[in-house]
């Protein structure tokens, strides 16, 4: 089961309700008390970048901004830190979507990694400009773990879109 241009399977369009549900689940996963561990992924970043690439009509920069403001409020961080990073990552995903979708899945991971790293760098810069200390290098372990989850997240998030292999002779497709 490949999810790139080489795939011969037909996909259903992504349902907006499912996309919003995945964004909500990612937000709740970020609320877990383990989200401050450096090896725990930023689920909201992963889902925002994924849907910004796959379905930019539903997940726009406005959705990324709202989720970013919510994360700022929940984390008690500098207001706008997550919002700015999420908006710029969503925009980068939308701009590079056509290029990324043509790549095989493992090469998509390599293309998404700089987007996620840039978002982490933006968050560090915003906190630094606000007077906070620079984090240690373990902070940049989180974007690596988040990017490494790109392949399994793609399979999980695309699962409802696959048509069944059993052909229904009553329908034309």
What would a concise description of this structure say?
The protein is an all-alpha fold and 173 residues long.
Textual characterization of the structure:
With 173 residues, the protein is mainly α. It has one domain (16-24, 41-159). Helix content is 60%, strand content 0%. It is built from 8 helices and no strands. Helix 3 packs antiparallel against helix 4, helix 4 (81-95) runs antiparallel to helix 6 and helix 6 packs antiparallel against helix 7. The longest helix is centred in the C-terminal third of the chain and has 25 residues, at 105-129. The chain is elongated, with a radius of gyration of 17 Å.
Give the topology.
Blueprint: H1 16-30, H2 43-54, H3 61-75, H4 81-95, H5 97-101, H6 105-129, H7 141-148, H8 150-158
Please work out how many helical segments DSSP would assign. Answer: 8
- Classification by helices and strands: mainly alpha
**H and E string:** HHHHHHHH
Helicity range: 55-70%
Could you report the average pLDDT, rounded to the nearest whole number? Answer: 87
What is the global morphology?
elongated
| Count of extended strands | 0
Estimate what percentage of residues fall within beta strands.
under 5%
Oligomer: single chain
Low-confidence runs: none
**Main beta-sheet annotation:** none
Distance between the termini: 19 Å
Alpha-carbon Rg, integer = 17 Å
